[in-house]
């Protein structure tokens, strides 16, 4: 399978009077891991939010595996196989840790009113085992039945990852997956990402500021500056170009 | 036709009053982001304070009015310090603050009811003189309402250029940035609530003098103010004024075409129409206000 | 809006499993309720039980939208009211002759169960309409829109005299009649109320615990994250409102068949505020909360009467208490007395 996972054409987005995306063009191939880097305000998170449908672009197109997803609703895009982890994680704080994952394991059909009336909590109970397994796999520590909001930041990041895995997506966007975590945890997350990307048919895109993390993990790098693509290419090359280093480190 | 003109003239007079009322509400919403439901309580409180000052204490209309405005401002200040401020500090969600504000408004209204009763109270006065413009006949009180509110609006238009108002607008956009630059937001917030109270007091006293009101009218007038702001466009004061005037004129038209009993409906139907067809309001800025 | 994000960051994480209010509060409340029950006779208790049945339906349905979905609405009384009116209108001719019918636009002659069904359906349709429009707005605009609709429905009911007799109300509403058994005595109404609860609540609770309910809660917790997970939050919220509206409509039918006279003032903004206060007080997101809320809110006016307030003043004092409760609850205990800070499946 070697098509294009994601094609972005001329994406523009104005927020609060500022043109955050000023014409972004990028192509991400199937499989593999791509990092989006750039200084603060370059538009990375906005780009991700536009891809997943939370923001509607002012101009341009987003094409996911040959299908146009520009302007669609976030849940539609999620249903088509695009998964996401937020920069600020966003677990469901009052729900238990396990329920966070169980919720992610439900299909659209499960959640329908009719099906819920008929089956009650059956699919929730059935999903519990799988949810626990996912939690074990990512290594969330702490009370599984306790509120997710009480977890440490690192555990919340892991929980968000477990939630992501539950969705079995084909294209995954990770917004700063290791921000604010200990080096040990960072390594674990790196492994999880590698494992995810190694799976057949899964493409990963991530935003990160930690260059060491990026260089060790990704195949391709896209550099954003002021809402446009500044440079892109294989990680080893792009990360070593002085212009890029200066841009991303010389803040 | 002359009926229509008369009703429109009434509408213009009401419009001036609604406009002032709207600005009082809009200031709070725009700068602090709070849906100041207790504003309805402030409104009736001001009216009843005026009523007592005039009928019980025996002050003249002007003195009583000015005092009512002052006391409302003070009350607004207190409301921020003693009620809203704790919520801000705690970081309560906007919806919850709105519900709490509703609670406060209910408390105010019903406390007033315990003192003044639930019926309409008015200020005993002689029959007002009339002013005729062609086929239109306005009472001197109506003219007074229009002129007074017009003056207030003009004053606001001038004051809009003052630094205070620029800060107030900026507060709505980017409160964190202001804090960084050293503005003590809590103090400005209290002033905004004080000004809001003072503004509410103006139409409150004017209506009390004209036709009187009952303690439970607060909610209706709050809704008028809120609709005027939302329909006119939250972003600019001109929008709130336009919203208030539009509302009043629409009300008059509905009375003309249909009957007075449907008047209350006008506000909500207008709101819904605007919300459905022109989200940002009549004079709003078209920006897709999505999540940050 | 930056204020919202700031507020989100500052919100303290839910504390440990404190689902219930402190024990002294619970026991104190129970003692008051028991004392009051002893003070009245059986007839009055029957009345209270019927009202409890009605208000449990209202509370549990509102809980679905507000407690589970996190949507505060001030229009629940409209569903209650439309249900009552639908029952009255569809059933009016079946009962005693009424001269009022001749002036009305339409009145039916339906059997009991069809009339109740009509009540539920009418309310559900209204909920769908109100929901569809209101859900286009977020947060406080949404709440305000529901408040606006509450006022609209009230104004229409009050002024469209041809349809529903406006302020004069509809009298002589036929009593319930199930398979020949006419419900007339208070204790029979208690039984009927109990039956309604037995039939409806299990389904509602089933939804509470289902994937639909969990998705609702996810939406309440974090709408953006729920959407990113594939949940169509708009459709979900709308469906929740329709279900809740339908149940509230059935409660309205029960009410109309019990009091046999209804007018718009029973279904005004005041009633919607009462219901919101009920849920905020008792707590949402579970089964215990609405029960606690209903019991407290229904016995409170009685307790006040006990104190000996003159009726004219009592209404205002009640309102003051509700208002103060709302404000205090929002500040100190937004989860209510028995609501959830933690939800488990």
Secondary structure topology:
The complex is a heterotrimer of chains A (251), B (292) and C (345).
Chain A (H helix, E strand, L loop, with lengths): L3 E12 L2 E12 L3 E5 L6 H8 L7 E6 L2 E2 L5 H6 L2 E4 L11 H9 L7 H7 L2 H17 L14 H14 L4 E5 L7 H16 L4 E5 L3 H7 L2 E6 L2 E7 H4 L3 H8 L2
Parallel strand pairs in A: 3-8, 3-9, 6-7, 7-8
Antiparallel strand pairs in A: 1-2, 1-4, 4-5, 9-10
Helix pairs in contact in A: 3-5, 3-6, 5-6
Chain B lengths: L1 H31 L6 H17 L5 H30 L3 H23 L13 E4 L2 E4 H20 L3 H11 L1 H6 L4 H26 L6 H16 L4 H21 L5 H15 L15
Antiparallel strand pairs in B: 1-2
Helix pairs in contact in B: 1-5, 1-6, 1-8, 1-9, 1-10, 2-3, 2-4, 2-8, 2-9, 3-8, 5-8, 6-8, 9-10, 9-11, 10-11
Chain C lengths: L1 H9 L12 H17 L2 H27 L7 H16 L8 H4 L8 H23 L4 H21 L1 H4 L12 E2 L2 E2 L3 H23 L2 H11 L1 H6 L4 H27 L9 H14 L5 H20 L3 H22 L13
Antiparallel strand pairs in C: 1-2
What keyword list fits this structure?
heterotrimer, A: 251 residues, alpha/beta, Rossmann fold, six-stranded mixed β-sheet, four-stranded antiparallel β-sheet, 10 helices, 10 strands, 38% helix, 25% strand, C: 345 residues, mainly alpha, two-stranded antiparallel ribbon, 1% strand, globular
The CATH architecture classification of chain B is Orthogonal Bundle
**SSE pattern of chain B:** HHHHEEHHHHHHH
Q: From the alpha-carbon coordinates, what is the Rg of chain B to the nearest angstrom?
A: 19 Å
Instruction: Look up the CATH topology of chain B.
Output: ABC transporter involved in vitamin B12 uptake, BtuC
| Separation, N- and C-terminal Cα atoms of chain C | 33 Å
Major β-sheet profile of chain B: 2 strands, antiparallel
> What is the count of helical runs of chain B?
11
What strand order characterises the main sheet of chain C?
Answer: 1-2
- How much helix, percentage-wise, in residues of chain B? over 70%
Order of helices and strands of chain C: HHHHHHHHEEHHHHHHH
**Oligomeric state, counting identical vs distinct chains:** heterotrimer
Mind telling me the CATH class of chain B? Mainly Alpha
* Main sheet characteristics of chain C: 2 strands, antiparallel
């Amino acid at each position: 399978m070697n098509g294009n996972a994601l094609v972005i054409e001329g994406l523009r987005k104005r927020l609060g009077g500022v043109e955050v995306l000023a014409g972004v063009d990028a192509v991400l191939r199937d499989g593999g891991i791509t990092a989006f880097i750039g200084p603060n305000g370059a538009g990375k998170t906005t780009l991700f939010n536009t891809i997943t449908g939370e923001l509607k672009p002012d101009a341009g197109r987003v094409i996911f595996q040959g299908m146009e997803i520009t302007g669609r609703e976030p849940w539609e895009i999620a249903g088509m196989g695009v998964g996401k982890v937020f920069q600020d994680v966003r677990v469901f704080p009052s729900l238990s840790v396990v329920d966070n994952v169980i919720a992610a394991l439900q299909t659209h059909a499960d959640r329908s009113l009719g099906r819920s009336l008929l089956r009650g909590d059956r699919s929730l109970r059935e999903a519990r085992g799988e949810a626990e397994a996912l939690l074990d796999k990512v290594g969330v520590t702490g009370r599984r039945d306790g509120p997710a909001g009480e977890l440490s930041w690192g555990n919340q990041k892991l929980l968000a990852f477990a939630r992501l895995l539950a969705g079995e997506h084909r294209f995954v966007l990770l917004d700063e997956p290791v921000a604010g975590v200990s080096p040990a945890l960072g390594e674990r997350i790196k492994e999880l990402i590698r494992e995810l990307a190694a799976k057949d048919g899964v493409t990963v895109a991530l935003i990160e500021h930690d260059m060491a993390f990026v260089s060790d993990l990704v195949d391709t790098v896209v550099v954003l500056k002021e809402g446009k693509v500044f440079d892109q290419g294989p990680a080893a090359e792009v990360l070593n170009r002085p212009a890029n280093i200066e841009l991303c480190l010389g803040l | 036709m002359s009926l229509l003109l008369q009703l429109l003239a009434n509408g213009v007079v009401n419009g001036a009053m609604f406009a002032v009322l709207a600005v009082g509400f809009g200031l709070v919403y725009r700068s602090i982001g709070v849906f100041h439901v207790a504003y309805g309580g402030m409104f009736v409180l001001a009216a009843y304070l005026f009523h007592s000052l005039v009928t019980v204490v025996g002050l003249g209309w002007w003195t009583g009015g000015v005092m009512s405005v002052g006391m409302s401002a003070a009350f607004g200040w207190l409301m921020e310090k003693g009620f809203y401020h704790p919520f801000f500090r705690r970081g309560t969600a906007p919806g919850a603050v709105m519900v709490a504000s509703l609670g406060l408004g209910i408390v105010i209204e019903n406390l007033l009811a315990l003192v003044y009763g639930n019926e309409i109270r008015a200020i005993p006065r002689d029959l007002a003189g009339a002013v005729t413009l062609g086929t239109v006949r306005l009472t001197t009180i109506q003219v007074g309402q229009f002129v007074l509110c017009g003056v207030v609006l003009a004053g606001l238009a001038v004051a809009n250029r003052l630094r205070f108002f620029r800060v107030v607008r900026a507060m709505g956009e980017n409160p964190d940035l202001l804090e960084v630059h050293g503005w003590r937001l809590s103090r400005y917030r209290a002033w905004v609530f004080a000004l809001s109270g003072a503004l509410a007091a103006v139409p409150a006293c004017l209506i009390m003098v004209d036709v009187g009101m009952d303690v439970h009218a607060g909610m209706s007038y709050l809704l008028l103010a809120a609709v005027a702001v939302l329909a006119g466009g939250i972003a600019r004061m001109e929008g709130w004024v336009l919203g208030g005037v539009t509302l009043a004129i629409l009300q008059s038209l509905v009375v003309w075409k249909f009957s007075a009993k449907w008047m209350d409906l006008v506000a909500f139907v207008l709101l819904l129409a605007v919300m459905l067809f022109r989200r940002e309001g009549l004079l709003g800025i078209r920006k897709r206000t999505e999540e940050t | 809006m930056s204020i919202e994000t700031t507020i989100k960051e500052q919100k303290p994480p839910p504390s440990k499993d404190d689902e219930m209010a402190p024990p002294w509060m619970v026991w104190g409340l129970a003692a008051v309720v028991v004392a009051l029950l002893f003070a009245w006779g059986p007839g009055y208790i029957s009345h209270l039980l019927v009202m409890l049945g009605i208000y449990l339906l209202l509370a549990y349905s509102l809980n679905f939208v507000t407690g589970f979905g996190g949507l505060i609405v001030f229009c629940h009384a409209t569903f209650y009211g439309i249900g009552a009116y639908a029952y009255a209108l569809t059933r009016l001719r079946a009962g005693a002759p009424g001269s009022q019918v001749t002036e009305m636009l339409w009145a039916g002659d339906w059997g009991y169960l069809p009339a109740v069904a009509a009540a539920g359906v009418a309310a559900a349709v209204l909920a769908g309409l109100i929901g569809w429009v209101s859900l286009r707005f977020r947060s406080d605009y949404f709440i305000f829109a529901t408040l606006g609709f509450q006022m609209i429905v009230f104004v229409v009911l009050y002024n469209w005299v041809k349809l529903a007799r406006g302020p004069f109300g509809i009298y002589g509403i036929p009593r319930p009649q199930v398979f020949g058994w006419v419900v007339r005595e208070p204790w029979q109404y208690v039984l009927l109320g109990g039956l309604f609860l037995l039939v409806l609540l299990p389904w509602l609770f089933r939804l509470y615990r289902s994937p639909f309910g969990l998705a609702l809660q996810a939406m309440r917790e974090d709408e953006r994250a729920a959407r990113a997970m594939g949940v169509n939050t708009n459709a979900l919220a709308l469906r929740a409102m329709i279900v809740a509206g339908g149940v509230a409509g059935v409660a309205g039918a029960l009410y109309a068949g019990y009091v046999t006279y209804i007018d718009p003032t029973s279904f005004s903004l005041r009633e919607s505020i009462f219901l919101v206060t009920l849920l905020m007080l008792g707590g949402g997101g579970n089964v215990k909360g609405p029960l606690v809320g209903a019991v407290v809110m229904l016995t409170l006016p009685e307790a006040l009467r006990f104190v000996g307030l003159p009726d004219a003043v009592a209404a205002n004092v009640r309102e003051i208490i509700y208002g103060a409760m709302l404000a205090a609850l929002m500040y100190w205990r937004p989860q209510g007395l028995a609501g959830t800070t933690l939800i488990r499946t």
